[in-house]
């Protein structure tokens, strides 16, 4: 991704500003290209999660999230460096080396407030790349949020599947208890012990009805 220039490059543009912009542009372009490479990887990984290819997606997610964290740290470092310069008028004024070379007397200490505040070109340049870094950071945050949302969706699906398995397991346990009760009753009546029901014509009917009601 090519970052547009924040300066009007002509013969009047000081060399030091061109040099600063070249550095910022190079760093911004490198980070932008790294972010662009992440987008298809994130898309492929999330697609793997949706089709339940969890083993493949798990390894890819770890790599993607680590890369996003690393790029976010780089961008945050660059933003902090630019903000530190933007917060110091003296630093921005002293970055204008061409003016210092041509008019050194103006930059002798103590420097007048008028000279300190004369740094519009430097401020415009730094603010343009600060915005560029913020845009890149937002892109990474969007990718990270997509991953988090997909992970939550997958966890919800797994919870639902687990609940269905628990329901089936409970039903099997109840049925097993029913069969166990029937086996216990059959065992009791099948023992070679007299219980007074051996000669009863209604005992079998009553036991059968109780067992039927039990199921």
Structure, described:
By secondary structure, this protein is mostly helical. It contains seven helices and no strands. The protein has helices at 15-50, 54-86, 89-94, 97-102, 113-116, 120-190, 203-214. Helix 1 (15-50) packs parallel to helix 6 and helix 2 packs antiparallel against helix 6 (120-190). The two termini are 71 Å apart. The relative contact order is 0.10. The mean pLDDT is 79.
Calculate the terminal CA-CA distance, rounded to whole Å.
71 Å
- Radius of gyration, CA atoms, in whole angstroms: 38 Å
Q: What letter string, H or E per element, gives the SSE order?
A: HHHHHHH
The helix tally amounts to 7
Counting helices, strands and paired strands, the structural category is mainly alpha
Low-confidence stretches: none
Number of strands: 0
The helix fraction, in percent, is over 70%
- What's the shape? rod-shaped
Summarize the structure.
With 215 residues, the chain is an all-alpha fold. It has helices at 15-50, 54-86, 89-94, 97-102, 113-116, 120-190, 203-214. It is rod-shaped.
Q: Main traits of this protein?
A:
215 residues, mainly alpha
């Amino acid at each position: 991704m090519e970052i547009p220039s924040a300066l009007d490059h002509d013969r009047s543009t000081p060399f030091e500003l061109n040099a600063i912009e070249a550095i910022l542009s190079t760093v911004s372009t490198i980070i932008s290209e790294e972010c662009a490479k992440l987008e298809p990887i994130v898309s492929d990984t999330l697609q793997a999660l949706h089709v339940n290819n969890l083993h493949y997606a798990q390894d890819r997610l770890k790599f993607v999230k680590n890369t996003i964290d690393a790029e976010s740290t780089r961008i945050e470092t660059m933003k902090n460096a630019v903000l530190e310069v933007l917060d110091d008028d003296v630093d921005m004024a002293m970055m204008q080396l061409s003016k210092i070379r041509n008019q050194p007397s103006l930059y002798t200490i103590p420097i007048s407030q008028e000279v300190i505040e004369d740094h519009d070109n430097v401020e415009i340049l730094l603010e343009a790349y600060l915005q560029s870094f913020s845009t890149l950071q937002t892109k990474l945050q969007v990718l990270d949020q997509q991953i988090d949302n997909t992970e939550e969706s997958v966890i919800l699906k797994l919870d639902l599947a687990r609940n269905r398995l628990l329901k089936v397991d409970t039903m099997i346990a109840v049925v097993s208890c029913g069969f166990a009760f029937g086996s216990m009753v059959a065992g009791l009546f099948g023992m070679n012990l007299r219980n007074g029901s051996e000669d009863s014509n209604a005992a079998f009917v009553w036991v059968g009805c109780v067992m039927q009601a039990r199921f």
